[in-house]
Amino acid sequence: MQKITLMTLLLIAVQLTYAQKQPDFVKFKPVHIGIIPGLGSSGVYGIKYEHNVSINIFSGHAYANNILSIAGISHYQIQRSQGINIAGVGNILGAFPFLKDREAQDSVAEFGAIQIAGLINGVNGGGFGGQLSAGFNLITGSMNGLQITGIHNDVAKAFSGGQIALISNHIGDMGVAFQSAFIVNRARMLSGVQLFALFNHISHELDGLQLGGLNVVTNHNSETFRYSKFYWMQLGLANFAWRNGDGFQMGLVNYAEDLGYAQFGLINISKKIPQYPIGLLNLAPDARGFLRAHNNRLFRYNVEMSTGSKKLLNALTYSWDNQKKRQGFSYALGNQKKDPRKLHNRYFYEAFAQATHLVEKGQSIWNPNMIYSVKGQFGLNPFDHTKMPDLFFFIGIVGNASWIKSGNQELIEGPLVAQNGNRTFWADLNFGVQL
Length: 435
What we know:
Layout: H1 2-21, E1 27-28, E2 31-36, E3 39-40, E4 49-56, E5 59-71, E6 74-87, E7 90-93, H2 101-104, E8 110-117, E9 120-123, E10 130-133, E11 136-140, E12 146-149, E13 153-156, E14 162-165, E15 168-171, E16 178-181, E17 184-187, E18 193-203, E19 208-218, E20 232-245, E21 248-250, E22 253-259, E23 262-270, E24 276-283, E25 288-295, E26 301-308, E27 313-321, E28 326-338, E29 347-360, E30 369-380, E31 392-403, E32 417-420, E33 423-434
């Protein structure tokens, strides 16, 4: 009995609260039963009624709804929607064209409900709630809740919730958000996350994460105080970013106009090399690197190319030895420091960690011997006082470790070789020339 009394008092309080807010031309009726708009307990002028509960066989309309509205096809409210709205096709809030200008000027849409529809949910302003539709969710101006749809979510001007769509999400302006779409996410000024889309697009700013097949950030015409700087992360098969940022890109192909932190991919392209580029090929006007040829006991011929930044170099090496009938492909990460002279460098020293994919004659390229190495090298340029370009002669010590597969011949012979079962460790000298 106490619970019933408490619920009754609470309902009365809610009714009184809403009754105080309604304009003079709006009448209040707690419950409405209808068939179609104009045919029901609220009569022809149901559009100017506020209800707590509205149940319609086909369609219904009201000025406001506070607790529950159910319609077989569609239901719309002029000014306020609270509670739960369920309709077979569409729920609409903010139908200002149904009111005269004199009546609509103070009618700002307020949305604080859960809307469920088979096809369309629409809100013309206001927010706090959620929408669930198999077809199309639309909020024009503000939203603080959640949208879930079969095809497309759309918010223009402000957003603080989450969107989940099979095909497309769109935020018109601002947003502290989460988006997850199977095909497309688009946003203008997003401080949140975009996930699991084949295509993600941001026009003007991003604070957060993009994860998709193709990620794009375009901030060419940003008008905010963060015109030239934003912080972000892109994870996808291909990542593109215009305008700079202290961020991170990870994909097969990465492009950035002015990236501050890192790129990680097969091909990295930027107008200004980031601090830590990691990839098979790093291209930028200010990229550093070298080209060199060298010799060691494992391979008679080695051709090596390196690209990277002041802090990190990536090196690719193709090696072969026709006499031993073997070839190798190596990737290394490390750094090289040079004598800091303006015209010519007299010397360099470096340290690299390297992995080598070694294939012998008759061996499958998919089942190679893997060799892991650490090398330190020193180079000297004897022509630093001439007009010739830098040409270094270098020598280095390389420590190697390999797990040799059973049945294969020994990979290396000679001094400084240790064998332990199928594991081999050895030290080697590496010498050559570098441009």
